[in-house]
Amino acid sequence: MVKRMCYIFFCIIITISSCNDNDEPASPVLPNEKQQSEQLKQEIEKYPDSLLLIEKLIQYYRNNGSYDSALAILNNTIKRAPNVAELWDIKALLHFENEDTVNAIKSFENAINIFPLPEYIISLGTLYAQTKNAKALIMADALAHADKAKATKEAIFIKGLYYNYINDKKTAISLFDSCLRLDYTYMFAYREKAIALYDLGKYQEAIKVLERAVTIQNNFDEAYYWLGNCYKKLNKKEEAMQSYYMALMYDKNFIEARDSLKTLEGR
Predict the structure, then answer these.
(1) Is residue 88 in some structural domain?
(2) Does the pLDDT at position 19 exceed 90?
(3) Is the pLDDT of residue 89 over 80?
(4) CB 154 within 8 A of CB 188
(5) Is residue 63 part of a domain?
(6) Which CATH number fits the domain that encloses residue 232?
């Protein structure tokens, strides 16, 4: 499921960030995005080594879904500065959003080879898990043994995610329980545990997990979506519809929830 993968990935990675450079000119507030992009291009001509300005232009293209343009600029920048790990991190994000998991993984591998930040390892481990690559376990062990990373919970979660994707649900559930013992507010562990139970046909147990999740965080839209799926399996149409309504209340662009609701409504 697209939303599930995006939530897993983007909520535990570093996204495009700004570099701190006091010598950079402040960009003026402009009346529209087209003028803003032109202004940024002009400023980049004056300051071609400014990562801050380049990232702003990449972000502009990203926001408009112009991934080819964003990646073209980024690739040219990487040619000039191939050993800047942050650029490879940004490239991985763009590839992932553009549904190119293979190149997202390659970009994270390059970032880690340059500078193995825990954030990059978490991101790469997550993608390995989603693609059923056993290297996810290696990434998880690296995190678990890096005291400074303080990412034991994330390491266990990556392992659980891997086992969930390779259909070893029992092992996955045990690992997600370990996550929750470390942090009972870790929403992703609730969600993934519930999905594992759902896949096993244990819908009532999944509902209990999801109800606890929304008790702790009542705006967790994906929990409501999976509640809807569980109720639908139990032929509880009204409860399923209400759950999908709740998911859409917290995220009006939740495509899967909207489609499921339409199906139940006969639209």
Answers:
(1) no
(2) no
(3) yes
(4) no
(5) no
(6) 1.25.40.10
Residues of the domain holding 251: 172-267
Lookup: tokens for 73: 């600029």
Q: Tokens in use for 228?
A: 């809807």
Q: What type of residue is 87?
A: L
- Note the pTM of the prediction, 2 decimals: 0.83
Q: Bigger pLDDT: 105 or 55? A: 105
Minimal CA–CA distance to 157: which of 124, 196, 192, 205? 192
Closest by alpha carbon to 141, among 130, 123, 125, 127? 125
Q: What is the 3-state secondary structure (H, E, C) of the chain?
A: CHHHHHHHHHCCCCCCCCCCCCCCCCCCCCCCHHHHHHHHHHHHHHCCCCHHHHHHHHHHHHHCCCHHHHHHHHHHHHHHCCCCHHHHHHHHHHHHHCCCHHHHHHHHHHHHHHCCCHHHHHHHHHHHHHCCCCHHHHHHHHHHCCHHHCCHHHHHHHHHHHHHHCCCHHHHHHHHHHHHHHCCCCHHHHHHHHHHHHHCCCHHHHHHHHHHHHHHCCCCHHHHHHHHHHHHHCCCHHHHHHHHHHHHHHCCCCHHHHHHHHHHHCC
Its sign, for the CA torsion 65, 68, 71, 72, is negative
What is the rounded CA–CA span in Å between residue 205 and residue 198?
Answer: 8
Burial (Cβ within 10 Å: 0-12, 13-18, ≥19) of residue 118:
middle
Nearest-5° Cα angle at 200, 197 to 205: 35
Domain total of the chain: 1
Q: Is 230 exposed, middle or buried (0-12, 13-18, 19+ CB in 10 A)?
A: buried
- pLDDT, residue 150, reads 86
Q: In whole angstroms, what is the distance from residue 139 CA to residue 158 CA?
A: 8
pLDDT at 193: 98
Q: What is the pLDDT of residue 46?
A: 82
